[in-house]
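S.,

Sequence below, as promised.
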Amino acid sequence: MAQVRPDEVSAILREQLSNVKTEAELEEVGTVLQVGDGVARIYGLSKAQAGELLEFDNGLRAMVLNLEEDNVGAVLFGDSKLVKEGDNVKRTKSIASIQVGEGMLGRVVDTLGHPIDGKGPIEGDLFEMPLERKAPGVIYRQPVNEPLQTGIKAIDSMIPIGRGQRELIIGDRQTGKTAVAIDTILNQKEFYERGEPVFCIYVAIGQKASTVAGIVAALEKGGALPYSVVVSAAASEPAPMQFFAPFTGACIGEFFRDTGR
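The prediction came back faster than expected:
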């Protein structure tokens, strides 16, 4: 029979007792009143903030948008069939945000910043960036003084496009809007090879998953993935995921802006 050593027993007990929390932890929990079309009405979260993340018992997350007198309205970041009347919801006390870092380059992510390309988790240091941020004032912005070459001679010669400005590509379906954007991304390869990369973020909203896969394959074939990020909110995704996809793209871009690129 093995001999019991009192010093070992006391050491184990000491270790277990050190992790015991005697303070009561309070969580604000609400109840779902109704759900439909990707929106849930929740009762009992009187201290919830606009833009705050909420979590359901099944792990599904939602974001507070409406703050009404006796309930809050939240958009669901997932299938509304997973939520039913009477479900419990708890506050996370954090504003809706995603994890952003250098490791996102060359990856395909969803609206919440989770990789969906089957290449495993995003590696490297990740920083939490809020989905909605106040833009810097005009005074603090760097002036637009450097051109962005698209690689299409007709556009580069006639239309001045500068780094840091917005440019709308407008046209009917099947007129080549996406082709212009993809060609522009592919044309930035020379800057990447020169060590002065122009980071490109392509946000696909409401497109078929097969179309997005084709775009990723074109970027990979052209050697453009190492300096690109693809954010995909396919047509099959819930409406809130499609709505917040551009916010995610802007959030990733702001990370590179804030780190001086």
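The radius of gyration is 24 Å.

Coffee later?
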